[in-house]
Recover the amino acids of this structure.
């Protein structure tokens, strides 16, 4: 079928064709597959969370106490400290811990996706512009090798 | 000669439209907390139109041009990578399926497959960059969302093809 | 025409996916936080480095694999006595190191045990069947295999290898991974001065430079894997012991739970004793050796020394490691089947609870100390403890 014929075909065609059933079942199977695979995915669930900047762990705290921390970048170094209202920061993310969950409530990153991760009790929150990762720690002890 | 000029002009218009739509879409915040980094991909309407009217070769250049242009306007390193990966994957899948299996499947299906692959590619880029395989927990939701997005994009494209005047589409 | 285009597009997609994942026989990992002269390497530099490393490992593997037809080792094994076999640079280098170690360990480390490995069913051709319980080979079969398992019957001069007996066969598995880690270290050092980062090939690791961005202040840390994780360890089943304060060191572990089978209440491991011709039965279940990178061939030495200690009586092995510590600053940890361990040298070895107290205090109560530091002198006779018997009985239920 050359181009013109195909365009004509689209014109006349209804929105769905029988062949679509194959695609929809394939998509459905894919969703099921991913759902099953999600049980194999590592997403730790623990009592503490770590803050990683540029892949290195810079801070760790417990999830059992409600608190607010602010992560900010100063001279190329990432730091975390307790959040006080009076201060002003650049390149910051405000991390809130409440009811055993972690979320990012405010930030000045260009992206803003970090705020939309919601409250997590397992897995990670990412802020790509700041190369920041908030990770829930697992139960194991870790070493370099 | 005339036909070529018309063609370039038409492609230019589509490219501009794609960029505008893309930029508008990027202003909308992520819709689902369970699946950040996915997009509806309305710009794919234009990519699909180019595939249909101008063929796969032109569409490839179109996709590359779109990515470069939008990167110039709204530069952000990681966003560029995400969009490039998503657009290229969507292009390959849609062009391939359109050439191979159409018209046995509708344009909507082509668009659905494109959306699924594109969004999986986007999430994968993030996982690879930040080493957070826990994001893959979201894959089922990403898939479902992509199906919905694909349907929207496909329907819009078909509407365009059906209702654009004959002389515009007559071998631009 | 359209179909051709479509096909081409799909192929392009597949190629893209294929190119990004280099295929290699040997699994390795390079840490993502690596530094050269204090500057962190970018992701693209790391990706390029990983590609070059995998090409190098592939090259070495193709020379020394016993499985690849036409590899140096395969040709040596197939050769007749007196036949000159020309080998590549990696094989030649490894064989020279083997020669030195063979002398130094008094024959406890031997690269000529392929026949015995095959007799006991531990060569790669038995993949998938390592754990099948099987009776011992007859003493005659063992004696026959032993007679052609001496490295003295192999002459190596430069890159020419000549056997003095037809049936002597080599297996460089006890040193190959360590040698690979040395080559990778050389590759990295050539390209990046003052490199800091870690690199691992299975149970061999090289920790280069000092740990950067050391928030906890413990330097590089390493886990000594728990070889009895099936019956102990609880929550943190992985770590038996933890090393801290490491820098510029090659670490290698050999243990009896990699390839083994249980028959009639006895555990037969893949490490064969060159003197008895049988799997080592000196009561040792795991040895970890740490060699400072100032030593030449640190990785290869660590790999070989960690298997050599299985092939001597326990007291002799500990003496051997003590002499290595005094002469070359090489440390070792030996774990035995009575669930005691000995530490030789000045490296810091911590129990899980101690390590947790330093890094994750909230987990201190949930982790288990599995092995205990031996009090008093080690004896050659090692009596397996209750947990060890439990472990063995886990596999006896066939």
């Amino acid at each position: 079928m050359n181009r013109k014929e195909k365009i004509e075909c689209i014109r006349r065609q209804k929105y769905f064709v029988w062949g679509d059933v194959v695609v929809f079942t394939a998509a459905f199977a894919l969703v099921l597959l991913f759902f099953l695979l999600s049980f194999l995915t590592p997403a730790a669930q623990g009592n503490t969370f770590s803050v990683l900047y540029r892949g290195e762990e810079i801070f760790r705290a417990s999830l059992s106490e409600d608190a607010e921390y602010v992560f900010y970048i100063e001279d190329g170094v990432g730091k975390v400290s307790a959040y006080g209202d009076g201060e002003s920061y650049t390149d910051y993310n405000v991390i809130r811990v409440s009811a055993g969950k972690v979320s990012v409530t405010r930030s000045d990153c260009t992206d803003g996706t970090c705020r939309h991760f919601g409250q997590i009790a397992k897995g990670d929150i990412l802020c790509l512009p700041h190369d920041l990762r908030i990770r829930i720690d697992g139960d194991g002890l870790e070493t370099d090798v | 000669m005339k036909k070529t000029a018309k063609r370039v002009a038409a492609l230019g218009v589509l490219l501009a439209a794609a960029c505008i739509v893309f930029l508008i879409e990027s202003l909308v915040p992520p819709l689902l907390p369970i699946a950040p980094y996915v997009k509806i991909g309305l710009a794919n309407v234009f990519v699909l139109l180019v595939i249909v009217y101008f063929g796969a070769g032109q569409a490839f250049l179109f996709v590359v041009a779109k990515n470069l242009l939008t990167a110039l306007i709204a530069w952000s390193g990681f966003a560029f990578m995400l969009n490039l990966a998503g657009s290229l994957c969507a292009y390959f899948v849609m062009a391939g399926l359109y050439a191979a299996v159409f018209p046995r499947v509708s344009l909507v299906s082509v668009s659905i497959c494109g959306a699924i692959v594109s969004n999986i590619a986007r999430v994968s880029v993030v996982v690879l960059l930040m080493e957070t395989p826990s994001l893959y927990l979201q894959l089922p939701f990403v898939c479902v969302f992509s199906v919905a997005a694909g349907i929207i994009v496909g329907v819009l494209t078909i509407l365009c093809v059906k209702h654009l005047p004959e002389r515009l589409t007559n071998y631009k | 025409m359209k179909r051709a285009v479509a096909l081409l597009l799909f192929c392009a997609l597949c190629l893209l996916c294929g190119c990004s994942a280099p295929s290699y026989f040997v699994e390795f990992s390079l840490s993502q936080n690596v530094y050269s002269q204090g500057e962190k390497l970018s992701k693209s530099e790391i990706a390029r480095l990983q590609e070059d490393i995998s090409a190098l490992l592939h090259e070495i593997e193709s020379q020394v694999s016993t499985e690849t037809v036409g590899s140096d080792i395969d040709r040596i094994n197939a050769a007749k006595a007196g036949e000159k076999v020309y080998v590549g640079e990696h094989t030649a280098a490894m064989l020279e190191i083997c020669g030195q170690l063979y002398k130094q360990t008094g024959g406890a480390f031997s690269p000529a045990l392929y026949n015995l490995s095959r007799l006991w069913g531990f060569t790669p051709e038995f993949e998938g069947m390592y754990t099948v319980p099987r009776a011992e080979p007859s003493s005659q079969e063992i004696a026959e295999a032993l007679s052609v398992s001496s490295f003295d019957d192999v002459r190596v001069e430069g890159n020419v290898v000549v056997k003095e007996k037809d049936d002597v066969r080599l297996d460089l598995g006890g040193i190959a991974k360590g040698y690979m880690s040395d080559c990778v270290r050389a590759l990295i050092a050539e390209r990046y001065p003052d490199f800091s980062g870690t690199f691992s090939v299975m149970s061999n690791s090289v920790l280069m430079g000092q740990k950067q961005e050391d928030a906890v202040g413990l330097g590089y840390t390493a886990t000594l894997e728990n070889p009895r994780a099936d019956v102990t360890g609880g929550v943190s089943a992985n770590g038996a012991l933890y090393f801290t304060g490491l820098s510029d060191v090659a670490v290698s572990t050999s243990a009896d739970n990699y390839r083994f089978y249980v028959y009639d209440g006895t555990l037969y491991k893949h490490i064969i004793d060159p003197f008895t011709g049988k799997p080592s039965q000196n009561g040792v279940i795991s040895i970890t050796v740490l060699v400072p990178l100032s030593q030449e061939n640190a990785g290869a030495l660590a790999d070989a020394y960690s298997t050599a200690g299985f092939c001597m009586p326990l007291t002799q092995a500990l003496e051997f490691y003590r002499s290595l510590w005094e002469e070359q600053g090489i440390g070792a940890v030996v774990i035995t089947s009575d669930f005691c361990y000995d530490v030789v040298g000045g490296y810091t070895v911590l129990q899980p609870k101690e390590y947790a107290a330093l890094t994750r205090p909230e987990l201190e109560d949930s982790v288990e100390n599995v092995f205990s530091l031996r009090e008093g002198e080690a004896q050659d006779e090692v009596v397996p403890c209750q947990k060890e018997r439990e472990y063995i009985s886990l596999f006896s239920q066939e």
